[in-house]
Amino acid sequence: MTTPRRPSAAPDTVLVTGGAGYIGSHVAHTLTAAGRGVVVLDDLSLGRPERVRGLTLLRLDLTDPGTPARLAAALREHRVGSVIHLAGHKRVAESVVRPLQYAEQNVTGLLRLLRALADGEVRTVVFSSSAAVYGDVTAGRVTEGHPPRPVNPYGRSKLAGEWLLADFARATGSRTIALRYFNVAGTQDGVLADRSTENLVSATVAALRAGRSPVVNGTDYPTADGTCVRDFVHVQDLAEAHVRALDALWAGADVPPALNLGTGVGTSVRDVVARLCELAGRPGAWAEAGRRSGDPAAVVADVTLARDTLGWTASRGPTEILQSAWLHRPDADLGGGAETRQRDRA
User: Fold this and answer.
1) 3-state secondary structure of 291
2) Where is the Ketoreductase domain positioned along the sequence (predicted)?
3) What span, in angstroms and rounded, lies between the C-alpha atoms of 275 and 285?
C-alpha cells in the first residue's frame, strides 16, 4: 500500500465538478471567499452559468469517453491540486425508473474523473455522497458505522462511488473523504438558489408560487405524524463543511473514509410543508398523496464524527432554511426593482 502524501499547504486551485449546480455553486463561492483558486467543471445540463460568473468554467461531460484526457490536460494547465466532486444526478424517484442512467452519471462519471486525476497526478478528493446509502433506518440517529443498505438506485450509485473512491485511494495513495449529505435546502443568495422542483422544499415553493397545493407523499409511515422524517441542513453550512474537509485532508489529519453532514435534528415532511404554506400566507394549503417508491421512513444524522474530526457543526436550523428558500424564490422582489427581479429569475 502506498503511503498517502501529506503536503503542508494547499495548492493554488481546487476543481469543483458540478460547480454550476445548486450545491456546487455554494461550494465554489465559499472556497473563493476562503482565498482558494477555483475551477468549475460542469456540462451545464443541470447547472446554470450565471451561478459561477467570474470563475473559470470547463464545460465537459464526465460520461464522455474522451473527457479524461482533456481533463488531465486542464488539471495541469490550471495547477489543480485537489477536487471536490459533486457532478451527478440525485433524484430518488427518477433513479427508480432510470437506474442505468444513474449508474452512468454517478458511477461511470466518477470512474472517468478518477482516470483524469491519476493522469494529472491529483491526489486529494472530497466526494459528494449521500445519506441515501443508509437506506431505511427507523431507530435513532444514523452513525457512519451503520451498515449501508440503500433502498433505491440513487443510493446504490453513491455507495458504489464510495467503494470506487476507496479503491482509488488505496491504489494511488490519495487522500480522500466521502461526505454523506442529508437533506440539503435553503440558499445563501438568490442567484445560487435551488431552481429545481425535485426536492421537497423547492417543489413546495414552486407549487405555492403557482397557486397549487403542495403535496405530502405518504402519511402512514411509522413516525410521529405519519410522514417521513428528514434531517434538513442549510446549503451554506454544507459548503463550509467542504472547506473544512479539504483543509483536514491537506493538513494530513486523521480522517475517516466517510462523514455525515446534517444537523442531528429530524423534521417531518408535513412540518416542512406546513411552515412553507404559512410563509406563503396560505396556511394548511397542502394535499395528501400516496407514498413515493424508494422513500425510507426516517433518516436523521448523528453528526458527532464531523464535529470531532472537522470542528464543524451546522449553525442554521429549519426556520432559516425555509425562510431563505421562500425569500429567494424566483418571483421574489427583494426591493431592488427590475434588476433584482431579473437576477432572481435567472
Assistant:
1) coil
2) 12-166
3) 11
pTM across the whole model: 0.90
Could you tell me which CATH number the domain at 190-229+264-328 has?
A: 3.90.25.10
What is the C-alpha separation between 214 and 271, in angstroms, rounded?
12
In which residue ranges of the chain is pLDDT below 50? Answer: 1-9, 333-346
Closest CA to 152 of 178, 130, 132: 132
Is the Cβ–Cβ distance between 303 and 314 less than 8 Å?
Answer: yes
CA gap 192, 186 in Å, rounded: 10
Q: How many Cβ atoms sit within 10 Å of the Cβ of residue 169?
A: 20
Is there a contact between 292 and 154 (Cβ–Cβ < 8 Å)?
A: no
Residue 154 falls in the annotated catalytic set: yes
* Cβ proximity of 87 and 71 under 8 Å: no
Query: Phi, psi (5° rounding) for residue 284?
Result: 75, 10
Out of 22, 102, 134, 154, the active site residue is 154
Kindly report the CA angle at 162 between 68 and 72, in degrees rounded to 5? Answer: 15
CATH class of 13-184+233-261: alpha beta
Asked if 71 and 41 count as a contact pair (C-beta separation under 8 A), the reply is yes
DSSP state of 105: I
Cell numbers at residue 288, please?
395528501
C-alpha cell at 223: 413516525
Longest dimension (CA), the chain: 60
- Residues 13-70 have pLDDT tens digits of 999 999 999 999 999 999 999 999 999 999 999 999 999 999 999 999 999 999 999 9
pLDDT at 10: 52
What residue segments make up the domains of the chain, in order of their start?
A: 13-184+233-261, 190-229+264-328
Whole-number Cα distances in Å, 208 to 118, 193, 211: 47, 16, 5
Residue 25, CA atoms < 13 Å, CB-side half-sphere: 23
Distance CA 50, CA 191 (A): 7
Q: Which of 214, 343, 187 has its CA nearest to residue 273?
A: 214
- The DSSP result for 152-220, as a single string, is SHHHHHHHHHHHHHHHHHHHHT-EEEEEEE-EEE--SSTTTS---S-SHHHHHHHHHHTTPPPEEE-S-
Angle in degrees, CA 180, 181, 182, rounded to 5: 120
